[in-house]
Design goal:
This protein has one domain. 7% of the residues lie in helices and 61% in strands. The chain contains one helix and five strands, in the order βββαββ. A five-stranded antiparallel sheet has the order 1-2-3-4-5. Strand 1 and strand 2 form a beta hairpin. The longest helix has 5 residues. The relative contact order is 0.26. Bound molecules: zinc ion. The site of zinc ion has 8 residues, from loops.
Length: 76
Amino acid sequence: MGNSYGVQVFCEGTQGTFEEQGTVEGQVCEKCGGRLVRGYYKSDPESWAHLAGRAGFMTLCADCGHVKDFQCTIMN
Ligand SMILES: [Zn+2]
């Protein structure tokens, strides 16, 4: 399959989608030992309408969804 999937992620009070861009080498999830992936997170359109939109580069676990790191680059 491709490396893009619409994982539902909950981050900083917003629900959004995560688009995977690659696996993080040499690290595993601290919660479940799963695979960490790097990608781009964007909160849903409703959050932007409520001035709570967030988007940026994120590292999360592909297995349990634990957000390890989030660098918010766009917000309103
Ligand atoms: Zn995990």
